[in-house]
Amino acid sequence: xxxxxxxxxxxxxxxxxxxxxxxxxxxxxxxxxxxxxxxxxxxxxxxxxxxxxxxxxxxxxxxxxxxxxxxxxxxxxxxxxxxxxxxxxxxxxxxxxxxxxxxxxxxxxxxxxxxxxxxxxxxxxxxxxxxxxxxxxxxxxxxxxxxxxxxxxxxxxxxxxxxxxxxxx
Length: 169
Description:
Layout lengths: L3 E3 L4 E4 L8 H13 L4 E5 L8 E9 L8 E2 L4 E7 L2 E6 L5 E7 L9 E4 L4 E6 L3 E9 L7 E2 L10 H11 L2
Parallel strand pairs: 2-3
Antiparallel strand pairs: 1-2, 3-4, 4-11, 5-12, 6-9, 6-11, 7-8, 7-10
């Protein structure tokens, strides 16, 4: 219906020469997020994992866990489309260095950020769902994402509670 190819339960690629996104496509991503165990789904508008520029429209549901991570070789920017989240940034030891409250432009919160490589970061979703546009460099290589040993691999409410508590200081 959208001329997309399904790569996994969480990832679709547009096959259009000129990809376009409307509320209908976003609603599709929301529904697919509700159907997979990690509560997330994305549409990639770049052609494949080897492209130099990667642009994605991403949906995370409220109970989606985005484990703290950093990218060795790429910068990343995020623009909010809908919903609210906290972007949390850490030093290498797991100490919070910054918290950015994210929301749509009309909320008065930050609706955009850009980070350099080698900065640990995570999102904590505050609304029913969080929809954003992400831009980063390719090609995608899973082995350049670093997960710290101070963060749990799976969702752990006590870890999220600790992050929320420490980021409000």
